[in-house]
Design a protein that fits this description.
The protein has 110 residues and is α/β, with parallel strands linked by helices. The chain has a single domain, classed as STAS domain (Transcription Regulator spoIIAA, 2-Layer Sandwich), CATH 3.30.750. The protein contains four helices and five strands. Strand 2, helix 1 (25-37) and strand 3 form a beta-alpha-beta unit. Helix 1 (25-37) runs parallel beside helix 2. It is globular and about 30 Å long. The chain starts with a strand and ends with a helix.
Length: 110
């Protein structure tokens, strides 16, 4: 499991490689909060290489979204596979997040 941070223009991209679960959610949270503290306000979390997110992973995404919005920023998601897309729809989290089909789409209209 790894979280890779990169910058594309004004957007901080977080690539999630592996599962987002209780054992690693704090690492993701800290990385995004560090970037937020450094003045970054636009975030795209790319799930191209992610097959599973548990409830604690969903919780950390909701928490991060709230913190980013409080700082006048935005956190978006991209590249959810079919199972993850269904998970977000069933939990109604697709109404909280802007979800793009691809990384390029997620970056294009920031």
């Amino acid at each position: 499991m790894a979280f890779n941070i990169s910058t594309e223009g004004e957007v901080t991209v977080v690539d999630v490689d592996g599962q987002l679960i209780v054992g690693n959610r704090q690492e993701l949270k800290q990385k995004v909060l560090d970037e937020l503290e450094a003045g970054r306000r636009k975030f795209l979390v790319d799930f191209t290489n992610t097959g599973y997110i548990d409830s604690s992973g969903l919780g950390v995404l909701v928490s991060l979204s709230k913190k980013v919005r409080e700082q006048d920023g935005e956190l978006r998601l991209s590249s959810l596979n079919e199972d993850l897309r269904t998970l977000f729809e069933l939990t109604k989290l697709d109404t909280l997040f802007r979800i793009a089909d691809s990384r390029e789409e997620g970056l294009s209209d920031f």
